[in-house]
């Protein structure tokens, strides 16, 4: 995903507020905090010049989301630009959320395992040098706790995600109609003259 | 758990569907004119061939992926040679990218180092450079153009509409249709079959449309078309609309309005209630069980035109079946559910999860006894279905007591063959016409 370093806060905050409900003012502030904890992936990928489509990459190792490299046509209309910016910004926002979520999960899981093993009086590594793990039933306590701790965060995220998803799809529809209309219009001029 | 249920379930599906179709053909031979038989046989041949073909193709692809590394089509060489040092590679890419109207990429050299630092940076980057270039080139190969090829479209749409799940849903609808009293009406059956299939495709597509970032984060669902960018969200929604509208229209005007209404209601329940509720409350499992129960009810109402006790019995059977099936499956997915923010009983209320699964296994025994009471089947049915019902209840009990992955897997796999066999036994024990206590007129289709 090349090229998304222009001040993320400037992009994130107004659009985030536009799409967050009144109860979700947490989103811009959280995005600001998370920038330090979850590094965003910058890929050096550049698609071939002949291509005039978007390109999608392999899943990010932190967020598991596939980054998209958006194609910018030469005669990009304002509507197309609005759609592309919305998709780029949503991609960044999703990347931040899931990278942070997954890293937090892994970190807290490690801490939980460490504390449980300590409580049992066991070492972190077994005799053969492998990492000691807890079985699924012991981990169940952690999964339950993690889910309830992050419940509110997920509620906010879900609400934002649904809004963004609908908005993106709606604009895609508008752009598609605009393109069809543009294709038909020169034909109409030809038939009239 | 990812690969085997699919291959096993598709084998079962072929067997189950074969059994169902064989029974329906038998009914058609008894009651319908000979012209229908020819049509029926050709439909059956095509469908069985399609099922076998899909199954074989999937096995082949699985084998191919295991033996070879997935060959990615090489994209054309970029303007810059890939064997430059890292810093100059970044610059070269900046140039090529800057030539296209893109915002310039962030270069790692934006800070102002002093000379010594710069030398160290250069030497370190030369060493890292060759490794990183190798990694980056490999990484670049994994980038795919988001261009939809028409050859790929059927496969993509099949995965988008969860075609295997749709096939199972349609089989339960067929079972409902076949179990309903009255003469077998082939055109009505085909319309119900196609209409329900289209409605299911629509609902599944919308579900995937809503769940993209969540599906990316779970192993079971990370290869779905929207996650991989094989189809755009707009196209997915358009496809869903193009399935839902004709599907519901077929059911409403081709079959009867009651079946159409149930179809619309089920799409709404699945997409607008179940899908969002998965993140909010464990009640989603009960809503999902209702979603699974409605298709056989639709089959029954398509045949009879009314919601009889028999329809509710079939709905009840599918409703109860969902719990051992889903609760056992969810036991092994607790980590993914927790990380993804899904509220499932297996995570939040594990004891309830197992208790509910056992409770509904036992309910299946009760429901099989209710079948002859409601004139759906003869008394043979509870007798011959008792062994399989007792077995699934035993596995449910083991799951309740042991609460481990092994018992959950056993229960899940048992549920996969239990349902087709249960419905097949029901079909073979169907109450013959004329022996009903309810009387002759039970709402035959008007057309």
UniProtKB/TrEMBL annotation, chain A:
Task: Show the GO cellular component annotation of the record.
Answer: mitochondrial inner membrane
Q: What Pfam families is this protein classified in?
A: COA8
Q: Which UniProt keywords apply?
A: Membrane, Mitochondrion, Mitochondrion inner membrane, Transit peptide
What InterPro entries does the annotation carry?
Answer: COA8
What membrane topology does the annotation report for this chain?
Answer: Peripheral membrane protein
Q: Where in the cell is it found?
A: Mitochondrion inner membrane
Q: Which GO terms describe its biological process?
A: intrinsic apoptotic signaling pathway; mitochondrial respiratory chain complex IV assembly; protein stabilization; response to reactive oxygen species
Its family remark reads:
Belongs to the COA8 family.
Q: What is this protein's name?
A: Cytochrome c oxidase assembly factor 8
Organism ancestry: Eukaryota, Metazoa, Chordata, Craniata, Vertebrata
Automatic annotation (TrEMBL), chain B:
Q: What is its EC number?
A: 2.5.1.-
Main localization of the protein described in the UniProt heading? mitochondrion
- What is a biological process (GO) this protein takes part in? respiratory chain complex IV assembly
Per UniProt, what is one GO molecular function of this protein? Answer: geranylgeranyl diphosphate synthase activity
The residue ranges crossing the membrane are 190-210, 231-252, 258-277, 284-303, 309-331, 352-373, 379-399
Catalysed reactions, as listed in the record: heme b + (2E,6E)-farnesyl diphosphate + H2O = Fe(II)-heme o + diphosphate
Instruction: Specify whether Mitochondrion is a keyword of the entry.
Output: yes
Work out whether the entry's keyword set contains Mitochondrion. Answer: yes
Keywords, A to Z?
A: Heme biosynthesis, Membrane, Mitochondrion, Transferase, Transit peptide, Transmembrane, Transmembrane helix
Membrane topology per the entry is: Multi-pass membrane protein
Task: Give an example GO cellular component term for this record.
Answer: nucleolus
Q: Which domain of life is it from?
A: Eukaryota
Kindly report, in one word, the top-level EC class recorded for this enzyme.
transferase
User: In this record, what's one Pfam family?
Assistant: UbiA
Localization in the cell = Mitochondrion membrane
Record InterPro entries? Protohaem_IX_farnesylTrfase (IPR006369), Protohaem_IX_farnesylTrfase_mt (IPR016315), UbiA_prenyltransferase (IPR000537), UbiA_prenylTrfase_CS (IPR030470), UbiA_sf (IPR044878)
The UniProt similarity line reads:
Belongs to the ubiA prenyltransferase family.
Function, as annotated = Converts protoheme IX and farnesyl diphosphate to heme O.
The protein here is known as Protoheme IX farnesyltransferase, mitochondrial
């Amino acid at each position: 995903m090349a090229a998304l370093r222009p001040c993320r806060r400037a992009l994130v905050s107004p659009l985030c507020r536009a799409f967050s409900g009144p109860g979700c003012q947490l989103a811009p502030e959280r995005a600001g905090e998370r920038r330090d904890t979850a590094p965003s992936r910058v890929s050096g990928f550049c698609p071939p010049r002949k291509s005039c489509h978007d390109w999608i990459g392999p899943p990010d190792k932190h967020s598991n989301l596939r980054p998209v490299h958006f194609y910018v046509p030469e005669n990009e209309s304002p509507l197309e630009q609005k759609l592309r910016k919305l998709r780029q910004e949503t991609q960044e926002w999703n990347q931040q959320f899931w990278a942070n979520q997954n890293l937090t999960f892994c970190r807290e899981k490690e801490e939980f395992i460490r504390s449980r093993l300590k409580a049992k009086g066991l070492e972190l590594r077994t005799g053969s040098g492998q990492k000691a793990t807890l079985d699924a039933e012991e981990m169940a306590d952690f999964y339950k706790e993690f889910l309830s701790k992050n419940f509110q965060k997920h509620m906010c995220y879900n609400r934002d995600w649904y809004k963004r998803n609908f908005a993106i799809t709606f604009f895609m529809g508008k752009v598609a109609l605009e393109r069809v209309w543009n294709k038909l219009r020169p034909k109409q001029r030809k038939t009239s003259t | 758990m990812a690969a085997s249920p699919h291959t096993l379930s598709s084998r079962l599906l072929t067997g189950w569907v074969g059994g169902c179709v064989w029974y329906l053909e038998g009914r058609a031979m008894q009651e319908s004119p000979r012209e229908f038989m020819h049509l029926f046989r050709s439909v059956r041949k095509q469908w069985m061939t399609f099922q076998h073909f899909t199954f074989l193709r999937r096995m082949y692809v699985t084998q191919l992926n295991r033996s070879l590394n997935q060959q990615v089509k090489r994209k054309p060489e970029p303007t810059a040679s890939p064997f430059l040092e890292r810093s100059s590679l970044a610059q070269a890419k900046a140039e090529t990218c800057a030539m296209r109207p893109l915002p310039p990429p962030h270069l790692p050299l934006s800070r102002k180092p002093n000379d010594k630092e710069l030398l160290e940076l250069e030497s370190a980057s030369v060493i890292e450079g060759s490794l990183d270039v190798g990694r980056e080139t490999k990484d670049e190969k994994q980038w795919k153009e988001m261009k939809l090829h028409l050859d790929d479209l059927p496969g993509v749409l099949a995965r988008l509409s969860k075609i295997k799940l749709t096939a199972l849903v349609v089989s339960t609808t067929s079972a409902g249709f076949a179990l309903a009293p009255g003469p077998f009406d082939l055109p009505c059956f085909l319309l119900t079959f196609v209409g329900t299939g289209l409605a299911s495709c629509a609902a599944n597509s919308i579900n995937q449309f809503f769940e993209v970032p969540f599906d990316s984060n779970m192993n079971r669902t990370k290869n779905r078309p929207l996650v991989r960018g094989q189809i755009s969200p707009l196209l997915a929604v358009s496809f869903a609309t193009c399935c839902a509208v004709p599907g519901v229209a077929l059911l409403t005007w081709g079959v009867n309005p009651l079946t159409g209404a149930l179809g619309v209601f089920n799409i709404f329940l699945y997409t607008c209630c179940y899908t969002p509720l998965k993140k909010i409350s464990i009640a989603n499992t009960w809503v999902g069980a209702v979603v699974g129960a409605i298709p056989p009810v639709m089959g029954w109402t398509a045949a009879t035109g009314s919601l009889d006790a028999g329809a509710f019995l079939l709905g009840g059977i599918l409703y109860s079946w969902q719990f051992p099936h889903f609760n056992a499956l969810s036991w092994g997915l607790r980590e993914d559910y927790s990380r993804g923010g899904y509220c499932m009983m297996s995570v939040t209320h594990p004891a309830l999860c197992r208790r509910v699964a056992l409770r509904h296994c036992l309910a299946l025994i009760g429901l099989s006894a209710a079948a002859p009471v409601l004139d759906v089947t003869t008394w043979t049915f509870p007798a011959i279905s008792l062994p399989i019902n007792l077995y699934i209840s035993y596995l449910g009990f083991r799951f309740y007591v042991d609460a481990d992955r092994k018992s959950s897997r056993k229960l899940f796999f048992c549920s996969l063959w239990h349902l087709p066999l249960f419905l097949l036994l029901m079909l073979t024990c169907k109450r013959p016409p004329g022996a009903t206590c309810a009387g002759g007129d039970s709402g035959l289709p008007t057309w």
